[in-house]
Amino acid sequence: MSQSMEQRAATIAVLVENEAGVLARVIGLFSGRGYNIESLTVAPVDADRRISRITVVTSGTEMIIDQIKAQLDRLVPVHKVSDLSMEGPHLTRELALIKVVGRGEGRMEALRLADAFRARVVDATPESAVFEMTGSSDKIEAFCALMQPLGLAEVSRTGVVAIARGARSLTV
Amino acid sequence: MSAIATLSPETRIMTGAEVVLQALKDQGVEVIFGYPGGAVLPIYDALFQQNAIRHILVRHEQAAVHAAEGYARSTGKVGCVLVTSGPGATNAVTGLVDALMDSIPIVCLTGQVPTHLIGNDAFQEADTTGITRPATKHNYLVKRPGDLARVMHEAFYVARSGRPGPVVVDLPKDILIGKAPYQEADRAEHRSYRPVTEPDPRRIGEAVAAMKRSHRPIVYAGGGVINAGPEASRLLAEFVRMTGFPCTNTLMGLGAYPASDPQFLGMLGMHGTYEANMAMHGCDVMFNIGARFDDRVTGRLNAFSPGSTKIHADIDPSSINKNVRVDVPIVGDAGAVLRAIIAAWKADDTQQDRKALAGWWRQIETWRGKHCLSYVQQGKIIKPQHAVKRLFEITQELRAASGKETFITTEVGQHQMWAAQYFGFDAPNRWMTSGGLGTMGYGLPAAAGVQIAYPDALVIDIAGEASILMNIQEMGTLAQYRLPVKIFILNNEYMGMVRQWQELLHGSRYSESYSEALPDFVKLAESFHAVGMRATEADQLDDVIHAMIASPKAVIADICVAKDENCFPMIPSGAAHNEMILGPGQAGGVAGVTDEGKVLV
């Protein structure tokens, strides 16, 4: 095969009918065919037209990623599949809620770092703080790593959502 | 009252079960294969009160799906199945996956417990949509009466459009009993599923340019040509003849190109002909139309047809570049692609290199000269190859004399490969076999489905003694509907293909592959109101075939064949096309199978 065997990451946006079972179809496709899912998010985006948007972060060779797109596209309730990582510049964001438990200097240091990372304090008690942070997955991971010695207790992340930059839009 | 008042004039209110039947009628369904049970009683009650749709009672739900597959494959229509909830649905799963793998259009209606009990582990409840999600092209659970008619029509649209496949509609009992509005099929486009059927002219141009310049071309045609309808097969023949190219068919594609034509190289793949596989290996331009580079066809991928320019036309974009990287991908219906290719070929005034093509044919003739399908029939023991060959020749004579058409179904194993090798098909839709899934027990119910569609045709299930027992209960269906299906068992008292692999790859340790404690097939036939006959010696073979065909009843012909015969030629697993084993004399060649190859199925 002349094609590169190199692995690459792909962020794929999928517009689907908002109906029962559609998420199971997508997840079943990935597990049934042995593809990776690094992150998967889903939410309705157009209530009137019953459309949901799924964002999948996956990886594989170019041939595998083409397969993933073709396999997604042939699912009956799938409207559109877009490989954001290949179709020009795009934004990816993730939201995380990060709980740090501790008192004293550690807690102060956590609050200072949060400020530097533009994480918002959404809950605080004398012995804990919950930070809300939005950004790339890398940024969230970097912040969590810094919180680790300062009493990191719990992390809840949404997974990646993504959108193309500029006027180009993905609609049905 | 107000709800009814707002309905459009063409919307009628009926029971859910009546809506189901009305939708079937509107979709042109004449026959449904099924088995009743608690959850589908309302549909059976509605069936009882009408005459438009004929119900064929099978003896096992798996057989209902295979029968519908046989019906669909032989007629080109959507096959229809009706089974109950729970075990009815789970029994149907093998048939559904079979239809999925071989792209057969099926609509399977499954009963379900009433909506308020779903999730409660009710009696005969199963998560049918969950279980069948990877077993179908698409499935539905109808939870609102207002969705019922739309879903029914949509199921047929999805089953037959694009790459065909099985669709399940799960029907809770309260939906079937309660009132539901009926509306006709929506003429509007489907919201999300709109497969591309017309090919991109630019790709057609590239394909024709490559083929015009070719010196060693080959056409590799598969089941997609059959699925595209008889016109696609006619166009394939037109294209192959006007170009002078050699043509090979996959197992699923047999009949797409006439087997008796000199440009036909036979089937390709693991048990394909030497000439077909060598030509695939040595070609410089390959035109794949409606086939999917299955592992049975390609052999070792990194040695598959090295150096050729590959054109691949398929209606399913996910089939393209899945196993083999191709140079010219064409998405479209096989018939539409062939029509476009023929037109573009005629419009392109580049001259073909006829001299090179003649040289290629001379090379192919030397491969043909190996006579890879030759065998020696001598003495009393019946060679299985000979049995199939005689069956073919005698049915050919019958066709010449009476015009009677022959349809062949098979089970899975050695007999299936011998049928593919020695029975020639000159027209599409005459050959029904389980290709992708390889389902033992497919052939008998599929034959029943074919015979329902063609009551006057000669329908033969070429079987093995092990496979036939997997759905032998369908003898009851044959008896009930007086279906004169002929079951031609190549009885070697072994699960022959398993035995062959054990001989070649596992040191002749025949672990559990002997067909111990077989029934007496003659008596078995008689107990099911059919006729049993047997041939144990070569000189009885023709008489038994003639008697079988002459019988107006269902027949089991127990043909006792050589027990240790292997199916050749063979590409051992993990080998390349040009590393074929031609016969037993060369079987030592299998000793070279690597551990990597052994892992392959």
Report on the structure:
The complex is a heterodimer of chains A (172) and B (601). Chain A contains four helices and nine strands, in the order E-H-E-E-H-E-E-H-E-E-H-E-E. The mean pLDDT of chain A is 95. Chain A is elongated and about 55 Å long. In chain A, strand 6 and strand 7 form a beta hairpin. The longest helix of chain A has 13 residues. Chain A is of the alpha+beta class. Chain B has 23 helices and 20 strands. In chain B, strand 12, helix 13 and strand 13 form a beta-alpha-beta unit. Chain B starts with a helix and ends with a helix. At the A-B interface, helix 1 and helix 2 of A face strand 6 of B.
Q: Can you give the mean pLDDT of chain B? A: 95
Structural class of the helix and strand makeup of chain B?
Answer: alpha/beta
Shape of chain B: globular
Element string of chain A (H = helix, E = strand): EHEEHEEHEEHEE
Strand content of chain B: 15-25%
- The residue-averaged pLDDT of chain A reads 95
The Rg value of chain A, from CA coordinates, equals: 19 Å
Give the key terms.
heterodimer; A: 172 residues; alpha+beta; 5-stranded antiparallel beta sheet; 4-stranded antiparallel beta sheet; 4 helices; B: 601 residues; alpha/beta; 6-stranded parallel beta sheet; 23 helices; disordered N terminus
Short description:
The complex is a heterodimer of chains A (172) and B (601). Chain A has 172 residues and is α+β, with helices and mostly antiparallel strands.
Task: List strands and helices in order, with pairings.
The complex is a heterodimer of chains A (172) and B (601).
Chain A: E1 8-17, H1 22-32, E2 39-46, E3 51-60, H2 62-73, E4 78-83, E5 90-101, H3 104-116, E6 120-125, E7 128-135, H4 137-147, E8 152-157, E9 161-164
Antiparallel strand pairs in A: 1-3, 1-4, 2-3, 5-7, 5-8, 5-9, 6-7
Chain B: H1 2-5, E1 12-15, H2 16-26, E2 31-34, H3 41-48, E3 54-57, H4 61-75, E4 79-83, H5 87-101, E5 106-112, H6 128-132, E6 138-141, H7 148-160, E7 166-172, H8 173-177, E8 179-182, H9 201-212, E9 217-221, H10 223-227, H11 230-243, E10 247-249, E11 264-267, H12 274-282, E12 285-289, H13 295-298, E13 309-314, E14 328-331, H14 334-347, H15 354-368, H16 384-402, E15 406-410, H17 414-422, E16 431-432, H18 443-453, E17 458-464, H19 475-480, E18 486-491, H20 496-505, H21 521-527, E19 531-535, H22 541-550, E20 555-560, H23 595-599
Parallel strand pairs in B: 2-3, 2-4, 4-5, 5-7, 6-7, 9-10, 9-12, 10-11, 12-13, 13-14, 15-16, 15-17, 17-18, 18-20, 19-20
Antiparallel strand pairs in B: 1-8
